[in-house]
TrEMBL record, chain A:
Residue stretches making up the Na+/H+ antiporter MnhB subunit-related protein domain: 790-911
Protein species of origin: Nocardiopsis terrae
Residue ranges of domain MrpA C-terminal/MbhD in the record: 606-670
Subcellular compartments: Cell membrane; Membrane
Subcellular location, principal: membrane
InterPro entries named in the record: CPA3_Na-H_Antiporter_A, MnhB, MrpA_C/MbhD, MrpA_C/MbhE, ND/Mrp_TM, Proton_antipo_N
Name of the molecule in the record: Multicomponent Na+:H+ antiporter subunit A
Domain NADH-Ubiquinone oxidoreductase (complex I) chain 5 N-terminal: 64-103
Transmembrane segments: 77-95, 107-125, 131-149, 161-181, 201-217, 268-289, 296-314, 320-344, 365-384, 404-432, 452-473, 493-518, 567-586, 598-616, 623-641, 647-668, 680-701, 744-767, 788-810, 816-835, 847-868, 888-913
Automatic annotation (TrEMBL), chain B:
Name the record gives this protein: Multicomponent Na+:H+ antiporter subunit C
Lineage: Bacteria, Bacillati, Actinomycetota, Actinomycetes, Streptosporangiales
Gene3D superfamilies: 1.10.287.3510
Family, similarity comment: Belongs to the CPA3 antiporters (TC 2.A.63) subunit C family.
Cited InterPro entries: CPA3_antiporter_subunitC (IPR050601), NUOK/Mnh_C1-like (IPR039428)
Transmembrane segments annotated in the record for this chain: 26-48, 68-87
PANTHER family, per database record: ANTIPORTER SUBUNIT MNHC2-RELATED
UniProt source species: Nocardiopsis terrae
Keywords from the named record: Cell membrane, Membrane, Transmembrane, Transmembrane helix
Highest taxon of source: Bacteria
Membrane-topology annotation of the record: Multi-pass membrane protein
Subcellular location as annotated: Cell membrane
Length: 957, 102
C-alpha cells in the first residue's frame, strides 16, 4: 500500500506543478521539495521491515490481464536504496532549483523533473519487466525534454542523448520479450528466481548482452560514454539530478537487479569489468583535461559509473556491498559537486577554470562544501568515499576469471583512482585556491545566500556524517547484496580495517594522484589537448548522417513527382501476382447459391455505359456526371443486395460529392489535360488487366461459402445485446463502435485539413472559361429574381430536412437511418441553402463549422468514456426511460455516440461548402501568370533536399 | 457473377482514370475504385441472401450478411471525406495538373 501511496503522491505532484508554478513561480520548488522530503521519510520508515526483517513490500493490481502483465510493485532492499536516492536527492535538488533559476515561472522544468522522479521511482519499484521498460523509457523521454529546455543550442545534444539511450531501451525491450517468451511470466522476481533459463548458456548470454547494452547506454559506459558530457547542455539542477544522482543510476540499478541471473556468467563478468574499468580510466583522464567545471564533473561521473559497473561485474556479495556503498557515496558527493558548480556559475558568472581562482576568500561556504565533496570523491578518510573505494579495491582483487585478472583489475582501478584524486584536486584548487585569473566580475563574486547553498551543504555533510557513522549502513548494504546476488553477505563497514591490501591500494592511489596533480600543475599541462583523434559526438554524427543518407538514396530509387507512377506500380504488381495465381491455379469450393439474378444484368449494362463514357470524355463536367451515374448504379446495386442503409448512404454521398465537385470544377479548365497516345494505350492495357484481375478475383474468391459466423452472430443476437433491430446500425454504434469512432476522427481531420490547405495555399479563382457573361439588361442577370423559386422552396424544405434528419438519427437503431445518413440529410439541407443563395455573402454559413466537427468527435468520445462505468471504452449503457403516455423509451449511450457522428458529418459538409464554395478576399487570389513561375522553384527545393536539409542530417555542430 | 463483372468494369475504368494526368481525373478514378472495392466487400458477404437485415421487418434467416454492410457504410463515408479533400487539393495552389508541362 505504501508503494501505491508513494507513486500516487508523486503523480499528484506532477499534476499540481502547473498550479504551483502559476502561484509561486520558481519557488514552486519548495513545496515539491517538501513532498519529496516527506516521501523520503515515508520510505525511511519502511526500513525496519524491508531491511531489518528482509520482507519486501509488495503491491499488485491487474493492468493488462489478457497478456498477464500486472502493475506489480515490489520494494526490497535494493529498491529501497534507490527510492531513497531518488526522493532524498530529489528534495535537495528541488530546493536548490528555487534559487538557481532567476525569478521567473519554471513550469516546464518542475513538471518534467517531478515526472522524471515519478518515472525513476516506478523504475526501481517495478516488479514486472513490461512495467520496468515503460518507466525506463519514460526517464529517457523526460531527460530528452529537460535537456531540450536549455534552448536551441541544446537541441542536438538532446537528440543525440535521446537516440542513444532509446537504443539501449530497445535492447532492454528485446531482453524483456525474450524473458517473457521463455519463462511465461513477466514478473521480474519470478523470472530472476527461475533457474531454467539461466542454465541455457546461449540464451542467457544473449539476454545478458542485451541487458548490458541497456546498462551501458543508460549509465554512459564506454563506448557510449560521450552522451553524458554532451548532455551537460542541460541546466545544472537537471545535470545534478538526472546525469549524476538518478537517471544514470538506472543502469546501475538494472545491472544489480539482474546479477542473480548473470553473476556467474563469465561473459557478463568480463564485459562489465573490462568496459567498466576502461570507462573509469578514460573518464578520469578526460576529467582531468577539462577547463569547464561542469564537464569535469560530467567526465568524473562517467568514471565513477565505470567503477560501479565494473564492481557489479565481479558479482560476489562483497562486490555488491561495495557497489551499494559507492552508489550512496557517489550520489551524495556528485550532487553536492554539481550544485557547487551551479553556485560558482551563478555567483561568479563563469565555470571556466581559466577565469576562476581564489574564490575561497569570497565564497568560503561554497569552497568548504565543494572541498568536502571532492575529498569524498578522491577517497580520503574519514569520508564515505574513502570507505566505498576501499571496498571497491577489495572487490576487484577477487574478480572472477584467471588468477591474474584480479590484480590487473585492481591495478587499473588504482590508476583510475589516482586520476580521480588529481581531478578532484584540480576542481577544488583551480576554483577556490590560488589567485583569480579572470577579469572584474569573477573578482567581485560574493557568497551565495544560505538558502542557495544549504541543499549542497546537506549533501556534502551527508558524506562526512555517513563516513563517521558508517556501521549504520551495514544492514542496508547486506540486504542489498542479498537481494542482488541471492546470497547472504556479512559485511561490516568500518573506517579502519587494519593494514590490508585495500588500504595499500588507497594509499597508492592518493600518492600517485598527488604526484600526478603536482607534475601536471593540477591538470593544466594536460587540459584542452586532444588525446584521441575523434570524439564520440563526431562518430555519432557520422553514423547518424550516414544512415540518413542511405535512407535518402534508397528513397531516390523510386522518387518521382508523377502520381501516375506511384499509383501504377502497385496495380501492375497486383496484376502480375494474379497472373501467377491464375497459372498455378487454386482449389475452389463450389459457388454457394444463386449469384446472378435477371435484373442484375441491367445494372451491369448501366455501369458499362457510365464507366465507358467517363473514360472517353475529355470534359471535366461530363466526367464528373458520368462517375456520378456510376455511383448511383452502385447505390442501386446495394439496394438489390439488401443493404438498405448502405444504399441510402451511397445515394446521399453521391449527391454531395457532385455538389462539392462542381464547386471545384468551376475553378478549373473545361477540358482535361492531353496526354500522348502511347500513354493512353499503355494505361488502357493496365486498366483492362486490372479489371480482368478484379472480376476474376471477385468471382473466384467470393460468394463460395455460407454467411460468415460473425454475421450470423449479429443477426441472431443484436436485439438482445443492444435493443436495436437495425443490425447494421447496431454493428456501427454498439459492436464495432471503436472502428466508427476512428472513422469519425478521419472524417473530422479531413474537414480540418481542407481548411488548413486552403488557408496555406489559397483557392483558385473561378476559371476564365467558366465565367458567365451576361449584360445587365438580360433577364438572367439579377440574382435575386432568378433565385426566387429556389429560395422559396428552400425556406420550407430546409427546416423539414433538418427535422427529418433528426428523426432519422433517432430511429436509426431500429430502422434505416442513423448518424451517417441523418448527418448527410442535414448537410443536404445546408447545401440547398447554399445553392439557393443569390450571392456569396448570403450563401456564407455563419456557423463555427470546425467547432461542430470538434464537438462531434468530443461527444462521441464522451459517450465512449461513459462506457467505462460498465467496463470498457465505448461500451453502450442502456436504460429504460418510462414515458408519460405509458411504455418505455429504450435509451442507450450508443445514441449519444450517433449524435457525435451526426455532428461531425454535418460539420465536414459545412466546411466543404463554405471553404470551397465562396470566393476569398482579393489578397489570396493570385494571377494565373504566377502559377508557372512558382512550379520550378517548388521542384528545385524538392531535388535540393540533401543540400538544404541540415536539420535532419545534423552536420558537425 | 454479375457483381463480379460490375466490379471488373469499375476497376478497369477507375485504374484508367487514376493513371491519367490531372488531379480531377485521379480523384474520379479513385472514387470509382472505392466504389468497386465496396462492392467487392459486399460480394465477400455473399450475394445469394438479399433480404434486409432489419429484424423488425424480416427474419434473420434470409437477411444479407450485416457485417460487410457495416464495413461498406463506414468505407463510403471515409472515401467521401478523402474525395473532397483531394478535390480541395485540385482547386488550390496552381491548377490541377499533376505533371510537368513538357
Amino acid at each position: 500500500m505504501v508503494l501505491l501511496i508513494l507513486l500516487i503522491v508523486l503523480a499528484v505532484t506532477v499534476a499540481s506543478t502547473p498550479l504551483l508554478d502559476r502561484l509561486l513561480g520558481r519557488n514552486a520548488g519548495w513545496p515539491i521539495a517538501a513532498v519529496f522530503l516527506g516521501l523520503t521519510l515515508l520510505v525511511a520508515a519502511q526500513a525496519p521491515q524491508v531491511l531489518g526483517s528482509g520482507e519486501p513490500l509488495e503491491f499488485s493490481r491487474p493492468w493488462m490481464p489478457q497478456i498477464g502483465v500486472e502493475l506489480h510493485l515490489r520494494m526490497d532492499g535494493l529498491g529501497w536504496l534507490f527510492t531513497m536516492l531518488v526522493t532524498g536527492i530529489g528534495a535537495l535538488i528541488m530546493a536548490y532549483s528555487t534559487r538557481y533559476f532567476p525569478p521567473r515561472r519554471r513550469f516546464g522544468f518542475y513538471f518534467l523533473m517531478t515526472l522524471f522522479a515519478t518515472a525513476m521511482s516506478g523504475l526501481v519499484l517495478a516488479d514486472d519487466v513490461v512495467l520496468l521498460f515503460v518507466f525506463w523509457e519514460l526517464t529517457t523521454i523526460a531527460s530528452f525534454y529537460l535537456i531540450g529546455l536549455s534552448g536551441p543550442s541544446a537541441s542536438r545534444p538532446a537528440i543525440r542523448t535521446f537516440l542513444l539511450t532509446a537504443m539501449g531501451g530497445l535492447a532492454l525491450l528485446a531482453a524483456a520479450v525474450l524473458l517473457i517468451v521463455r519463462t511465461g511470466t513477466s514478473q521480474l522476481s519470478v523470472i530472476l528466481a527461475d533457474t531454467s533459463w539461466t542454465e541455457d548458456t546461449g540464451f542467457v548470454s544473449l539476454v545478458a548482452v542485451l541487458v548490458a547494452v541497456a546498462v551501458f547506454t543508460k549509465s554512459a559506459q564506454f563506448p557510449f560514454h560521450y552522451w553524458l558530457p554532451d548532455a551537460m547542455a542541460a541546466s545544472t539542477p537537471v545535470s545534478a539530478y538526472l546525469h549524476a544522482a538518478a537517471m544514470v543510476k538506472a543502469g546501475i540499478y538494472l545491472a544489480m537487479r539482474f546479477t542473480p541471473a548473470f553473476g556467474d556468467l563469465l561473459l557478463w563478468n568480463t564485459l562489465l569489468i573490462v568496459l567498466g574499468l576502461t570507462t573509469a580510466v578514460v573518464g578520469a583522464v578526460f576529467a582531468l583535461q577539462q577547463h569547464d567545471l561542469k564537464r569535469l564533473a560530467a567526465f568524473s561521473t562517467v568514471s565513477q559509473l565505470g567503477f560501479l559497473v565494473a564492481v557489479i561485474g565481479v558479482g560476489t556479495p562483497e562486490a555488491l556491498v561495495a557497489a551499494a556503498v559507492h552508489t550512496v557515496a557517489h550520489a551524495l558527493f556528485k550532487s553536492a559537486l554539481f550544485m557547487s558548480v551551479g553556485l560558482v556559475d551563478i555567483q561568479a558568472g563563469t565555470r571556466d577554470l581559466r577565469q576562476l581562482g581564489g574564490l575561497r576568500r569570497r565564497m568560503p561556504v561554497t569552497a568548504a562544501l565543494a572541498a568536502l565533496a571532492a575529498l569524498s570523491m578522491a577517497g580520503i578518510p574519514p569520508l564515505l568515499g574513502f570507505i566505498s573505494k576501499e571496498n571497491l579495491f577489495e572487490a576487484f582483487l577477487h574478480a572472477p576469471g584467471p588468477a591474474w585478472f584480479g590484480p590487473v583489475a585492481g591495478a587499473a582501478a588504482v590508476g583510475a583512482a589516482a586520476f580521480t584524486f588529481a581531478y578532484s584536486f584540480r576542481f577544488v584548487y583551480g576554483a577556490f585556491w590560488g589567485e583569480p585569473r579572470g577579469d572584474a566580475e569573477e573578482r567581485t563574486a560574493s557568497e551565495a545566500r544560505p538558502s542557495f547553498w544549504l541543499p549542497a551543504m546537506t549533501a556534502s555533510l551527508g558524506g562526512v556524517l555517513l563516513g563517521l557513522t558508517v556501521p549504520i549502513l551495514d544492514t542496508m548494504v547486506n540486504e542489498v547484496a542479498l537481494n542482488a546476488t541471492h546470497e547472504a553477505a556479512d559485511a561490516h563497514l568500518l573506517l579502519w580495517h587494519g593494514l590490508n591490501a585495500a588500504l595499500g591500494m588507497s594509499a597508492a592511489a592518493v600518492g600517485l594522484g598527488a604526484l600526478l596533480a603536482w607534475r601536471s600543475r593540477s591538470g593544466d599541462a594536460l587540459a584542452g589537448r586532444d588525446l584521441v583523434p575523434v570524439t564520440g559526438v563526431w562518430i555519432f554524427e557520422f553514423l547518424h548522417e550516414g544512415i540518413v543518407r542511405v535512407g535518402r538514396r534508397t528513397g531516390d530509387l523510386t522518387r518521382t513527382d508523377s502520381p501516375a507512377f506511384h499509383l501504377g506500380v502497385p496495380v501492375v504488381l497486383i496484376i502480375a501476382l494474379a497472373s501467377v495465381v491464375a497459372v498455378v491455379g487454386l482449389d475452389l469450393p463450389p459457388v454457394a447459391g444463386q449469384t446472378a439474378m435477371g435484373l442484375d444484368w441491367l445494372l451491369v449494362g448501366l455501369m458499362a455505359v457510365a464507366v465507358g463514357a467517363a473514360v472517353v470524355t475529355r470534359s471535366r463536367m461530363a466526367g464528373l456526371a458520368l462517375v456520378g451515374v456510376a455511383g448511383f448504379t452502385v447505390a442501386l446495386w446495394l439496394f438489390f443486395l439488401g443493404a438498405f442503409d448502405v444504399a441510402l448512404t451511397q445515394l446521399l454521398v453521391e449527391i454531395l460529392t457532385v455538389v462539392v465537385a462542381v464547386l471545384v470544377l468551376r475553378r478549373l479548365p473545361k477540358k482535361f489535360h492531353r496526354v500522348k497516345r502511347s500513354r493512353t494505350a499503355l494505361t488502357a492495357v493496365i486498366a483492362i488487366g486490372a479489371g480482368l484481375t478484379a472480376a476474376v478475383g471477385a468471382y473466384a474468391l467470393t460468394g463460395r461459402r455460407e454467411i460468415s459466423a460473425a454475421g450470423e452472430y449479429f443477426l441472431g443476437n443484436a436485439p438482445e445485446d443492444t435493443g436495436g433491430t437495425n443490425v447494421v446500425n447496431t454493428i456501427l454504434v454498439d459492436y464495432r463502435a471503436l472502428d466508427t469512432f476512428g472513422e469519425l476522427v478521419v472524417l473530422g481531420v479531413a474537414g480540418l485539413i481542407i481548411i488548413a490547405v486552403l488557408h496555406s495555399s489559397g483557392l483558385l479563382p473561378v476559371h476564365s472559361s467558366r465565367r458567365v457573361v451576361v449584360g445587365g439588361t438580360n433577364a438572367a442577370y439579377p440574382p435575386e429574381d432568378n433565385t426566387v423559386l429556389m429560395r422559396t422552396v428552400g425556406r420550407f424544405l430546409m427546416p423539414l430536412l433538418v427535422l427529418w434528419s433528426v428523426y432519422l438519427l433517432f430511429r436509426g437503431h431500429n430502422e434505416p437511418g442513423g448518424g451517417f445518413i441523418a448527418g448527410l440529410v442535414g448537410g443536404s439541407g445546408f447545401a440547398l441553402l447554399y445553392l439557393a443563395a443569390p450571392s456569396d455573402d448570403r450563401a456564407r454559413i455563419r456557423l463555427a463549422y470546425p467547432a461542430i466537427i470538434g464537438a462531434g468527435v468530443l461527444v462521441a468520445a464522451f459517450s465512449g468514456f461513459l462506457g467505462y462505468a460498465d467496463g470498457s471504452f465505448l461500451k453502450p449503457l442502456h436504460a429504460e426511460i418510462p414515458l408519460a403516455w405509458g411504455g418505455y423509451f429504450h435509451f442507450t449511450t450508443a445514441l449519444v455516440f450517433d449524435v457525435g457522428v451526426y455532428l461531425a458529418v454535418v460539420g465536414v459538409l459545412l466546411t466543404a461548402l463554405n471553404e470551397l464554395g465562396l470566393e476569398r478576399g482579393e489578397g489570396s487570389v493570385r494571377e494565373p501568370e504566377g502559377f508557372r513561375t512558382d512550379r520550378p522553384s517548388a521542384q528545385a527545393s524538392g531535388d535540393d533536399a540533401p543540400a538544404l536539409d541540415g536539420s535532419t542530417t545534423g552536420g558537425n555542430r | 457473377m454479375t457483381l463480379a463483372i460490375t466490379i471488373g468494369i469499375m476497376v478497369a475504368g477507375g485504374v484508367y482514370l487514376m493513371l491519367q494526368r490531372g488531379m480531377v481525373r485521379i480523384v474520379l478514378g479513385l472514387v470509382l475504385l472505392g466504389h468497386s472495392v465496396n462492392l467487392l466487400i459486399m460480394s465477400a458477404g455473399g450475394v445469394f441472401r438479399r433480404d434486409l437485415p432489419l429484424l423488425q421487418f424480416g427474419t434473420a434467416l434470409t437477411a444479407g450478411d450485416p457485417l460487410p454492410q457495416a464495413f461498406v457504410l463506414t468505407a463510403i463515408v471515409i472515401a467521401f471525406s478523402i474525395a473532397i479533400y483531394m478535390l480541395t487539393l485540385a482547386a488550390s495552389g496552381s491548377d490541377d495538373d499533376t505533371e510537368d508541362a513538357s
